[in-house]
Design a protein that fits this description.
The protein is of the alpha/beta class. The chain contains 9 helices and 9 strands. Helices cover 42% and strands 19% of the residues. Strands 2-7-1-8-9 form a 5-stranded parallel sheet, with helices on both faces. Strands 4-3-6-5 form a 4-stranded mixed sheet. Helix 5 runs antiparallel to helix 6. It is globular, with a radius of gyration of 20 Å. 29% of the residues are buried. Bound molecules: adenosine-5'-triphosphate and ligand LQESDW3C. InterPro entries: GK/Ca_channel_bsu, Guanylate_kin-like_dom, Guanylate_kinase, Guanylate_kinase_CS, P-loop_NTPase.
Length: 223
């Protein structure tokens, strides 16, 4: 066990629900994939979706790819912590693994839209830290969307038209990052997680503070 925020004290801490949203194409997948690779003690909440798999994606690693019927039956079985329609597809956060991970002291990363972020905050308010990623401009957002392998002009336009309604929700988040430079944005994202880890560590220091106070009192009494 370590006091380093890189290696959180697992048994005596509850994990953080680290919720990251952005308009499509602003860069949250790029940033969160790097965080998952480089930061210890964080796991991705793998969502279910009805959208088609992309060339760089793997079943059960990036998403659980479902048919509409399968997705509906998961909703019926109360298998989602939250679910939403985003563009013309359905996305949902499976309930099963979240609570066990949090109890093991593992931070869980959620890449969800504003509807999902709002629901998660409502369900588990004390556990959620939310971050909104902004693009530096709409022109740059368009460029980033066009640069992706699966981008058709229609898909790019649909996602671009969704940017305004998404950006309007920025005030609901705990933190906002402007993803102009990827290195700076990544450093900021990681710093937020470390800061929140340190803030929560205060709660587990009570027993050690009691010992310090008892010793200090003994000293004051000359014992
Ligand atoms: N700071 C940046 N500068 C230049 N390009 C970037 C930057 N951040 C991300 N990108 C690029 O922009 C594209 C979109 O990024 P990404 O797929 O991470 O967006 P996203 O917010 O996860 O989108 P979606 O919500 O649709 O999944 C990618 O090609 C990525 O490499
Ligand atoms: N409410 C939820 N939103 C989700 C979930 N998983 C992903 N998303 C969001 O959907 C859009 C589009 O994602 P893409 O991978 O198709 O580009 C993006 O904003 C994601 O954050 C979820 O489980 N619930």
């Amino acid at each position: 066990m370590s006091n380093n925020p890189l290696q959180p004290n697992r048994p005596d801490r509850r994990g953080i629900m680290f919720v990251v949203s952005s308009p499509s194409g602003a860069g949250k997948t790029t940033l969160t994939r790097r965080m998952l690779k480089e930061v210890e003690g964080v796991e991705l909440s793998v969502s279910a979706t009805t959208r088609a798999i992309r060339p760089d994606e793997e079943e059960a690693v990036h998403y659980y790819f479902k048919s509409h019927d399968e997705f509906r039956s998961l909703i019926g079985g109360d298998q989602f912590l939250e679910w939403a329609q985003v563009f013309e597809h359905y996305y949902g956060t499976p309930r099963g693994k979240v609570e066990p991970l949090l109890r093991q002291g593992i931070d869980v990363l959620f890449d969800v839209d504003w509807q999902g972020a709002r629901m998660l905050k409502q369900c588990m308010p004390g556990d959620v830290v939310s971050v909104f990623i902004l693009p530096p401009s709409i022109a740059e957002l368009k460029k980033r969307l066009e640069g992706r392998a699966e981008a058709t002009p229609e898909a790019v336009m649909k996602r671009l038209l969704g940017a305004g309604p998404d950006i309007k929700r920025w005030g609901e988040y705990d933190y906002v990052i402007m993803n102009d430079n990827i290195e700076t944005a990544y450093e900021e994202l990681r710093s937020i997680l470390y800061t929140e880890r340190l803030a929560r560590r205060k709660a587990s220091q009570g027993a050690r503070v009691d010992v310090l106070l008892a010793d200090a009192e003994k000293l004051e009494k000359g014992g």
